[in-house]
Amino acid sequence: MSSQLIKDNSIVDDDWRQIMPPEAEIEVKKQAGKVVIFKLTGEDSLTSEQIEKTTMPKEGKLLLPVKVFLHHQDNLKGRISNQEIGIWIETHEEIESFINQIEDINNLPCIAVSTKKFADGRIFSIGNLLRMKYKYKNELRAIGDVLRDQLFFLKRSGFNSFLIRKDKDAKDALLGLNDFTTPYQGAVDQTKPAWKIINRN
Question: Whole-model pTM?
Fold first, then answer.
């Protein structure tokens, strides 16, 4: 199967393995007769039982759920030093709830942010926070329901790798990184607004 990972403006092989926790019993919440699609910001993501039962391969590069990482990080110091351990978070998980428990966020070579639905705009805010406030310098990856239409704006929010949804064409999605040439507003990828860059002669 061809790779769905876009990084450095190319489609590349994926060296990372996303570790999934075991399934938990999920209570479906309803509001006004409709299933609530998005978890609320700050809502718990994993139970203590899920954290305990999550298994990790002893070799290879692993993206761990952030709560699993925090639970095991003292035992993972060697693998962290070897650049073998990254984390993934969901859009409802607040960075402030775990950032102080990580010794140095830049010891993590990869952080992935998972969005359940492409319409969940929290992923853009998370990218901005990680880059601008917390000064994360390494690979910031968008995963989950990631589509071509989002890529240009995800890049502007600080993401530099994108795992395209399996049923979509990664080659077509790659073109989305260049959908616009000169954005007007400043952002993570270009902090100066267009009016400060364009020669007005």
Answer: 0.82
